[in-house]
Amino acid sequence: MGIMDGYPRKPNTQHHQSLMDAPAGATSSTTHAPPGPHHHATAKKRHHSGRTKTILLFVVTNSISILLSVSFSHVTGLGSGGDGGGDSALDFAFSVLSSSQSLAVDLHNRIEATDAIIKRLISNSGKMKRDAPPPKLTPEEELTVALGPHTLPFGYTRNLDSDKLYPAVGAACHRHRDELRKYMRYNVSGDCPSDEAFAERLMLKGCEPLPRRRCRARGPAGFPDPTPFPESLWVIPADKSVSWAPYACKNYSCLVDRARRPGRNDLDCKACFDLAGKEQRRWVGQGGDLDYDIDTVLASKPRGTIRIGLDIGGGTGTFAARMAERGVTMVTTTLDLGAPFGAFVASRGLVPLHLGAVAGRLPFFDGTLDIVHSMNVLGNWVPGAVLEAELYDIYRVLRPGGIFWLDHFFCTGKELTGVYVPIIEGVGFRKLRWNTGKKLDKGPNADEWYISALLERPMM
C-alpha cells in the first residue's frame, strides 16, 4: 500500500459527472459499506497506475511535440535536403525524447526512493519501544530524506499546486554531494557533530540553506543568563555562552586582544570585538565625507518613520546596537568566519541572521523595510551580475521612500566610473547623498576608491 493511499486527493470529477448524468428522480445513498479487500486492491492499483499515467503523459506529450517539429521540418524543407535532412531531424527528435524520458524516470525514482525510506521509518516507528533507538539510515538515505521530494499525507494541495513537498535546499548543494553525505553522517536523535566550520564552508559554496538534520544541536556547558537589555549592547558576554571548539581563540579576551597584536589577522573585522575601543566611535559624529553619522541619516526622513531594517554583513552588530539606542530594530546578517559572530550579536540583545547574503534572495517581503545598510561587504570582489541582482533585491525589500545606506563600497578608480556607477544608477534609486574618496591606507598613489551613498527607493 502506498504512503498516500487512504488520504483525500483532488475532487473526483468523474463521480460528480456520473451524478449529473443520472436519470431524473434518481437518488444517491449516503450510506457507505465498509471497504473490502477488493476495494483496497483497486485503490492500490489506481495509486500505482496514477504515477505510470503521469510519466506516460509526460513522454507522449514530448513525443507529439517532437513529431510535429519533424513534420514541420519536412514540409518547410529544413535541413540539408533529401533523406539526409530527414534523418538528422529524426535523430534529433529521438535524442530529445530520450532526454525527456531520462528526466521523468529520474524524478520517478527519487519519489519512489523517498517514499520507500519514509514507509520503512513509519513501519519501524510502530514497532519501537519508547526508549529504543530510531531506525538506522545510511548517510545517503538521510540525504534522500532531507532533499525529498516527500509525498503529502493528504494529497494534492492548491497552495503548492502539487501532491509533493520539496524541501528548501540551495541549488548548489547538488554540486557537492560527497560533502553533503559527510554532513549527513550523524547519530539520529543524538547530539549533532561539532562541524560548524564545515557547515559554514558549505554555505559559502552556495549550499544555502543546508538540509535539515534530525539531531540536537550542542550547546556550551553552564550557559549563563544573558545580560539584561540595554546594558547588553556594550558588554562582552561570558565565555561560557559559546562553544569554542571550531575557533582558534578559546575566549573573548583572545578576540579582543587579537586586533591589538601585530602580524596577520584572519578576522574580517579586526577590532569589532573590542567594544571599548574603535567600535564605540563608529557611526557617531561626522568624520570625513565618506563617514556618515547615524543621526544625520535618520534626520533625512520624518521623525519615527525609520523603524525596521537590515544590516548586510554587520559583523558583531555595532551598527544594529547604535540603531537600537535610537529605537530602530535591525536584523544583522553575519557568518561565523573564524569567530562566533552570530552568538556575539545575539548576546548583545540583537537579531543575527545566518546568511551569506550576496548570493541569494533576501528573506524579506517586498516593500517592508525602512532602511538597508551595508558596509565593506559589497565591493568589487562581487561579480557584476551578482552585485546588480543584489542591488535590485535591496530595492525590492525597501518600502517606497525607504533608504539604502551604501557604506564604503570599495573599487578601483577605473571600475568606479566604468562599471559600478552605471550599475548603481541603473537600478533606479534616487540619490539623497553621494560621496567618493580615495582609500588611503596604502598611500595616495594607490588607485583604490570608496563610494558612500544614501539612496532612496522613490515614492510611487
TrEMBL record:
SUPFAM superfamilies: S-adenosyl-L-methionine-dependent methyltransferases. It comes from the Eukaryota. The keyword Repeat does not apply. Keywords: Membrane, Transmembrane, Transmembrane helix. The keyword Transmembrane helix applies. The chain crosses the membrane at residues 54-72. Residues 1-48 are annotated as: Disordered. One of its GO terms (molecular function) is S-adenosylmethionine-dependent methyltransferase activity. InterPro entries: Methyltransf_11, Prob_Methyltransferase, SAM-dependent_MTases_sf. Residues 310-405 form the Methyltransferase type domain. Residues 37-48 have a biased composition (Basic residues). This is Methyltransferase type 11 domain-containing protein. It comes from Miscanthus lutarioriparius. The lineage of its organism: Eukaryota, Viridiplantae, Streptophyta, Embryophyta, Tracheophyta.
